[in-house]
Amino acid sequence: MSYPRKGAKQISELANGLIDPVLARRAGINTALLGSWSEIAGEDFADCTRPEKIAWARGGDETGGFRPGVLTIACEGARALFLTHAQGELIQRINSFFGFAAVHQIRIVQKPVSQATRRSRTPPPLKGEAARKLEGMMEGIENDKLRQAIQRLGTAVMGKRGNQR
């Protein structure tokens, strides 16, 4: 009889235990591949690529053994051309990560990979008492850049809900 492990479990162990079966069923990949992708892809392609899925061949080869799959990689824009030329090296890195010939081909799909950074919107200008109070605080500042920076900061801080009066 095995007893459950005592002590605290890492959140990553619990999350991987939940996510890995879903990823394996849907995309044929696991969280270890996703987590190590930047090391596998190298510094040239880590920022512009992301593994999407592995399409495993159904059945086996003629002898009933394992057949390697096709890895679909999302790549941004013109970098896909460079990735095409580095395909052989990337396949070797992926297979060495798995420890066996898991992938024999890479399919490249051009699509945005990095999450678009949301630009912070500028807060609306202050009105009334808050605007006069901020102007009074900035009276002795002569440097224009410093004055503009403090103006932006003061507008953001004093413009929060409930602070404008």
From TrEMBL:
Q: Which domain of life is it from?
A: Bacteria
InterPro entries named in the record: DciA-like, DUF1159
Q: What is this protein called?
A: RNA-binding protein
